[in-house]
Amino acid sequence: MKKADRLNQELIYLSYRKSFNLNELTSKFKISERTALRDIAELEEMGLPLYSEVGRNGGYKISQEKLWVPIKFNFEEINAIFFALKSMDLVSTTPLKKSFSSIYQKLLKSLPINYQKQIKQMQNIVKYRREPSVDDTQNLTLLLQAATQNLAVTCQNTQAEQKQTLQIANIFYQNGLWYTEAFDLRRETYRIYKCNKLKQLKLSPDKQTKKIAELTKIRTNYFNNFRTIKFRCRLTEHGKKAALRDLYPSMKVETHHNANYLTGQYNPQELDYMVQYLLKLGSDVRIIEPESLKDAYLKQLRKIVDSYC
């Protein structure tokens, strides 16, 4: 193991401990006492808050003050961080949108000049294709806060007449839009909302919310009971790749005996949506079941053909 990698591993290992002795390091990382002593000195220089204790039961104690300790990265790891930041910066809207470019610049300036040049060169060579945003969403930060702190939010859903009080389960990004899975605390219903349709959001810390375990059970029941119609389609290899790029929570791609299948469940109200989704896969999909989906799909195909006659 390289020295930089070993120091990082030691840092992670010791970060969760209150004390340790020399033998623990030599045994855990298969190093000599001399190497262990050098590592301890370097870890202290890096900012690990430790001090030695003498005596029979002596060793090293780690201060319980939580400090940010520098971690060493090799060039491949640094490059991976910059690629991740660049790709996230290209997402149309995120809860932390303003942070990505500033983090990018701060990290870049902290590197030696030769590393900066290499990073910029690689970033110029690799091109990112921005996924177009259908509509910007202004309330992602608040939704994220509500989800992480298990707080309710009140909002006006532009697709509903009355205000709603929601408990946010998660948020996800797909096809240029942000969605949230949420439980309506007044109506006691669980569903998926488009984030850009939720307006006038406010945190409501006084509202009683479900415990996380209970919310998870509600979510499972929703996907098991709301979408009751099972479907199964055969996919070509190209169709498999296309489906994986645009897969919804109620769908999955499976491979059995070298054959690819798209399976899942949908609600009867989602029939038109399912047809439009499968049409995007073109000749790379063939519906096996149910017949109602197949009939609706063929009907739409005939409608498309007739439009050219």
From TrEMBL:
Stored InterPro entries: CBASS_pafABC_assoc_protein, DeoR_HTH, HTH_11, WCX_dom, WH-like_DNA-bd_sf, WH_DNA-bd_sf, WYL_dom
Output the Gene Ontology terms for molecular function: DNA-binding transcription factor activity
Can you tell which superkingdom this protein's organism belongs to?
Bacteria
Show the PROSITE patterns listed in the entry.
HTH_DEOR_2 (PS51000)
- HTH deoR-type domain: residues covered: 3-58
This protein's UniProt keywords: Transcription, Transcription regulation
Q: Which PANTHER family match?
A: PTHR34580, SLL5097 PROTEIN (PTHR34580:SF9)
Protein name as catalogued: WYL domain-containing protein
Identify the taxonomic lineage of the organism of origin.
Bacteria, Bacillati, Bacillota, Bacilli, Lactobacillales
